[in-house]
Write a structure and sequence with these properties.
By secondary structure, the protein is mainly alpha-helical. The chain has 5 helices and no strands. Helix 2 runs antiparallel to helix 5 and helix 3 packs antiparallel against helix 4.
């Protein structure tokens, strides 16, 4: 369950990248733009809920596994997880809310959406590396 939820929490994010590219070209078609934004919202929800399963199964693995809570990779993973949770909650939703505001430049908002996706992918890759490699940092 832990590995599957990790895959589900990262994999759909890579679908965002071509969707964002198509969102750039959907300028004239408001209906297509709304469809792309709805798909992006579904992907973000899927990632968020699989992250909940990831956290619960991770806690169970620490509780019943051989690793203590004060292991460096566990502490770092929790830190990155909290950062990514905050980032997912604030980063994507604020960008998506600003998308239809007439005062915002559409290209700037799409660029921010793409940058947000890459930052979140980077955070999750660091977290996956910590969970798989289990480095002894201190």
């Amino acid at each position: 369950m832990h590995v599957v939820s990790a895959v589900i929490s990262v994999g759909p994010l890579f679908i965002l990248l071509p969707l964002i590219r198509r969102l750039r070209t959907a300028k004239a078609e408001a209906e297509a733009e709304d469809i792309y934004l709805a798909i992006i919202r579904v992907i973000i929800r899927l990632v968020m809920h699989s992250g909940h399963v990831l956290v619960v199964t991770g806690i169970l693995l620490i509780l019943f596994g051989p690793w203590p809570w004060n292991t460096s990779w566990v502490i770092l993973t929790i830190g990155v997880m909290l950062l990514s949770g905050f980032f997912l909650a604030t980063g994507f939703s604020s960008v998506l809310k600003r998308f239809h505001e007439p005062s915002n430049d559409r290209e700037v908002v799409v660029n921010k959406l793409q940058r947000t996706a890459w930052i979140y992918i980077g955070l999750l890759m660091v977290m996956l590396w910590l969970m798989v490699q289990k480095p002894a940092v201190w």
